[in-house]
Structures are given as C-alpha cells and as structure tokens.
UniProtKB/TrEMBL annotation:
This is Wadjet protein JetD C-terminal domain-containing protein. Pfam families: DUF3322 (PF11795), JetD_C (PF09983). Residues 5-189 form the DUF3322 domain. Coiled coil: none annotated. It comes from Desulfuromusa kysingii. It comes from the Bacteria. InterPro entries: DUF3322, JetD_C, UCP028408. Residues 216-392 form the Wadjet protein JetD C-terminal domain. Transmembrane segments: none annotated.
C-alpha cells in the first residue's frame, strides 16, 4: 500500500526530471500522471482490514476531492466471499501540472519559470527552446534570470569582447555575479551564440574556462623562463624573464632550438648553460598551457619532472598537446639510480589511472610506482636528483 510519502516521492521525481515544467511550457500531453498501486486480493483486505481502512482515510484526506488540488484516487473492485465487493484504490493521478506542484509546494518555482519563459521569448527568443528542454537548469537561477539575459544580450552583441568581466557595466551585475553564474551562463551562451563566436574546444570552467571559452580577458598564467645561451641574448640585458602566457605564445625566441621544461623553480634557476637553449619552469600541471605557443612545434622540447605519479601525469598531458616532447631523468634506470633519495608520495594524492601518452620506457617506470609495483608510492623529487646526473644527461643530448 503506497502512502502519502510514496506519492510525494513520485511527484517530486516527476518535478526533478523536468516533466512538469516541460509539459506546462510546451503543452506536451504528459498529464495526467499516474502512480499505479499493486492490486490487493480480497484475502489481503481481510487480513489487514484496519490498515486498509486507515490507508483509505489518509488518501481521502490528502486528495484533490477534499483539498481542491493534488491527486485524484481511482478505484477498482475486489471480490471476497465474505465481504462481497470492495472498492479499493487502483492508482492515483495528477490531472494537471498545477495539481502536482501545489501538492509538493513548488508553485512559486512553477509560476516563476513560466514567467521567465515568457520574458525570454520577448527578449531573446532563441533561448526559449533551450529553457523548455532544460528547465531544471533554469530553476535555481530564476531570481536572477533577467540579469542572465542581460549578460547574454551583451555577449551576443559583442562576441569575444576581449575585456575583463569587471569591465562589463550592467545594472546589478558584478564579478561576484559571474563567479556564481558561470555554469548557467556558459550553457545559455553556448545555445545562443553562433559557432564562430566562442571556442567550443574549451569545455570546463576551471582555470578561467568561462573567460577563455567566450573571449574575455583573465588573469593569465605567468610563464617564467631563463635563457641558457648568451648567444640568444643578442644584446638584451634580460636572461630571466616572466610574462603572461599570451605574450609568450605570440613570440618565437630567435636562436632557440631546444626548450627544457621543468617543474621545480630552483632547478630552473640552477639549470646549466646549453647552446640554443631556454628553460621554462614552475608551472606544475599548468605547464600544458605552453602548448598554445605554436612556435614550440618547431623546437626540441624536453621535459624533466618529479619521479612520482603526478610527474608522469604532467608529462603525459604535455605530450598530448605537443606530441614530440621528450623526457629526461624519468626512466626505470633513473628510479634505481636515485632510490636512496626517495620519499613516500602521500597515498590519498597518487594518480592511479592509465596515462595514454607515455613511451614504453616511461610507462614501465610509471607502473612501478602504482599498487603492485616494486616501487609503489615512491617519489623522487627533482631537487633530490644529484646535479651531476643532469650534467651527464645534457652532455648526452649535446652529442
């Protein structure tokens, strides 16, 4: 016997799926919505007569018949040789969206959504269809829907605006608004804008994903690099430089043919001289951003990271963007040479996934660090690797 709690659960699930709002918005015939009851036998009625009577009383008290809204109870007959014909509930139905939303206390959201939909049809009609298809994405933002439309109209009129979000002058909209509404704004703008008005390859919101997707300026990663060859300086006084990623990406470094990439800042600062070389350092997983510098495709790029699961993760990620990347001091032999310098990589932070862009030798070393490997949990940080090993490796590269 399904009681009021089960009926409310049924109604809430219909609401959460968006069925109610879609039906009200489009007129699709999703109502009446029915919840069927398991048919009881006459003997079951006799055995649980008191419970059945209480159940009938509860259903009747909460039904549309008495309350004016909610569910309607439908009956079927059950025969019993002693009790005769008994009318028992066979199912309940919600005849209209209004019946259901009032029953679960969602009438405010229901009314506000329909009002927002009508407003959207008048202001930005292209978004209205998306709203009817994704009503539950809209509901949490109904109080700010007009502001969301304001932003969408602004971006529609100025795609890829090339300004900071802080520079948008719209009533009631500030940077805190964008922090809270990035996800819904991204969804609506993607629906609204033409394919050439945003970068569809950027899908996440982390690391300024919204700004990068829709062409806003943002606080870029700062690339730091050192020139390792006096011949590259060509009269410049600057050997150690830092600049926004976009500036680094725009300008090739004349005379440079080898770019070393390393995680650790001190290793970058102490990196030895190398003819035609520069070293980029200190970005961690953000190092993948350097791949936006298309001129790197014509350079030899060599990565040196920690020997731990994240070091190989960064290498795999970087090679996914720059397929010709090489690595140094990250082989199984390097694990064995530096085993006495190893510490333990914290268990809760280790990577355990397969990495798609490692060479067989790198992959073999990575697997040794995983559960079941002979070096499970080993971490050999770059600064623990003897400096002479780096010098020897660079001599090999030179020759």
């Amino acid at each position: 016997m399904k009681g009021i709690a089960e009926i409310k659960d049924f109604a809430r699930k219909a609401w959460s799926r968006g069925d109610v709002l879609r039906s009200a918005a489009t007129g699709e015939p999703q109502f009446p919505l029915r919840l069927r009851f398991k048919k009881a036998s006459g003997q079951q009625v006799v055995d649980s007569l008191v419970e059945v009577q209480q159940w009938l009383s509860e259903l009747n008290a909460s039904s549309k018949k008495l309350g004016g809204f909610g569910f309607t109870v439908e009956f079927s007959e059950v025969n019993h040789r002693k009790l005769g014909r008994q009318r028992l509930p066979s199912d309940i139905r919600f005849d209209t969206p209004d019946d259901l939303v009032r029953f679960i206390g969602k009438q405010r959201e229901f009314t506000a959504f329909l009002k927002a939909l009508e407003t959207t049809k008048k202001r930005i009609s292209e978004v209205a269809l998306w709203m009817t298809e994704n009503p539950m994405k809209v509901v949490p933002h109904l109080d700010d829907w007009n502001k969301i439309l304001d932003v969408c109209k602004f971006v529609q009129s100025r795609p890829k605006p090339g300004i900071y979000l802080r520079q948008i002058t719209l009533s009631g909209i500030d940077t805190k608004f964008f922090e809270a509404k990035r996800s819904i704004l991204s969804d609506v703008l993607t629906c609204l804008l033409t394919a050439d008005a945003y970068d569809a390859s950027i899908t996440g919101l982390s690391r300024y994903g919204f700004e990068r997707r829709f062409g806003f300026l943002y606080d870029e990663a700062i690339i730091r690099y050192r020139i390792l060859d006096d011949g590259i300086l060509a009269g410049s006084f600057y050997r150690d430089l830092s600049m926004p990623l976009s500036e680094f990406a725009e300008h090739d470094i004349p005379g440079c043919h080898t770019v070393f990439v390393t995680e650790n800042k001190v290793n970058g600062l102490a990196f030895p001289t190398f003819k035609g070389g520069v070293v980029v350092f200190g970005l961690g997983y953000g190092i993948g951003d350097i791949a936006t510098a298309t001129w790197l495709r014509n350079k030899r790029v060599i990565y040196w990271g920690d020997i731990d699961t994240h070091g190989y993760g960064i290498l795999s990620m970087l090679r996914g963007k720059l397929p010709h990347v090489e690595s140094i001091l990250m082989t199984s032999q390097d694990i064995d040479l530096n085993r006495n310098a190893a510490v333990v990589e914290p268990n809760g932070t280790r990577r355990l996934d397969n990495l798609e862009n490692l060479t067989p030798d790198e992959e073999s070393a990575y697997f040794r660090l995983l559960p079941g490997g002979d070096c499970e949990g080993v971490r050999i940080e770059q600064e623990r690797v003897p400096y002479y090993l780096l010098l020897e490796k660079l001599d090999e590269i030179r020759h």
